[in-house]
Specification:
This protein is an alpha+beta fold. Helix content is 33%, strand content 17%. The protein is globular. One of its GO terms (molecular function) is zinc ion binding.
Length: 338
């Protein structure tokens, strides 16, 4: 039986309240509370699940029949219920009508705001039975438990890869379909994930919300800040299981592992020689330049990745080509610098 709390008790800050019995249940979602307090006379003939209202039963039956009458005009995704479509459209429009009164953060769904409020109240009503970790959201707990059980119930129909979360599967499937529903309003570039679009937009806005408390340097991405802070703390969490050498970035460990495995994944497309590090391949590719595409282009001896042009200044490498910091003009098209 779920524990309850008196709503009138001093200091009580409920997250889940049943609107029928007016009790706060610490460990159940609102729709589950509804089941304990109200008669449910409408029975699904497919799975025997019961409902309080006939329209709720009708919506549920669509999950069995496959009917999805409500279609998104932006990406074509369909839904069994109109309210689900309404919430989905906010992904495209960016609308977040439910705003936290304490910190101003906006949410597309009311229940997301309700769970967020538990962060401010300090409540974590959902606890992992394996490790005791607490969560403000029940679905977060469900996903977390799969770390312990190894369960991956969401399977890709294209390649068979399994996922612990349905949204991870949805994002993965876009690799196969090529769908990129999240489009930048500044340049039109499209992304498979909304968080990738959010980070990309900061290129245009210049926003760098993640600030280092040690030196004040700001970053557009949280993971970049996390990696940067290790320069100050000296933390090297990624350890080679062959020799014990530690690294501050997982990518550096992966590159280091090539020394032990003998792999040379970075191959020159001119002569076929392989290298264990991308930087070594980049240095090697300069030997194939032959007639320099820019007569004033020289290699900076202090930085393997950096090219310096006497006329236009430093160059940087991105998307397999050499760009000028000043003109953004592509100077080397006949050779790929990774």
């Amino acid at each position: 039986m779920a524990s309850t709390t008196n709503l009138n008790a001093p200091g009580s800050k409920p997250c889940n309240i049943c609107e029928h019995c007016r009790k706060y249940y610490l460990g159940l979602k609102p729709h589950e509370l509804y089941a304990q307090c109200v008669e449910r006379p409408f029975l699904c003939t497919y799975c025997n699940r019961t409902f309080t209202r006939k329209d709720k039963l009708a919506d549920h039956i669509k999950s069995h029949t496959g009917e999805r009458p409500h279609v998104c005009t932006h990406c074509g995704k369909s839904f069994t219920r109109k309210d689900k479509l309404t919430v989905h459209i906010r992904i495209h429009t960016g609308e977040r009508p439910y705003v936290c009164p304490q910190c101003g953060k906006g949410f597309a769904r009311k229940e997301k705001l309700g769970a967020h409020m538990c962060i401010h109240t300090g409540q974590h009503p959902y606890h992992c039975p394996h490790c005791g970790k607490g969560f403000a959201w029940r679905d977060k707990l469900v996903n977390h438990i799969r770390i312990h059980t190894g369960e991956r119930p969401f399977v890709c129909k294209h390649c068979g890869k399994g996922f612990a979360q349905n949204d991870k599967l949805t994002t993965h499937i876009r690799i196969h379909t090529g769908e990129r529903p999240f489009v930048c309003k500044h340049c039109g570039k499209a992304f498979a994930r909304n968080d990738k679009l959010t980070v990309h937009v900061r290129i245009h806005t210049g926003e760098r919300p993640f600030v280092c408390k040690h030196c004040g340097k700001a970053f557009a991405r949280k993971d970049k800040l996390t990696a940067h802070i290790r320069m100050h703390t000296g933390e090297r969490p990624f350890v080679c299981n062959h020799c014990g050498k530690a690294f501050d970035l997982k990518g550096k460990l992966n590159a280091h592992m090539n020394i032990h495995t003998g792999k040379h994944p970075f191959v020159c497309n001119h002569c076929g020689i392989g290298f264990d590090h991308k930087e070594k391949l980049n240095s090697h590719l300069l030997l194939h330049l032959g007639s320099n595409p820019c007569d004033s282009l020289i290699v900076n001896p202090l930085m393997t990745k950096t090219l310096i042009c006497k006329l236009t200044g430093p160059f940087y490498q991105k998307l397999g080509k050499i760009y000028s910091d000043n003109t953004r003009k592509i100077y080397a098209e006949q050779i790929t610098i990774l």
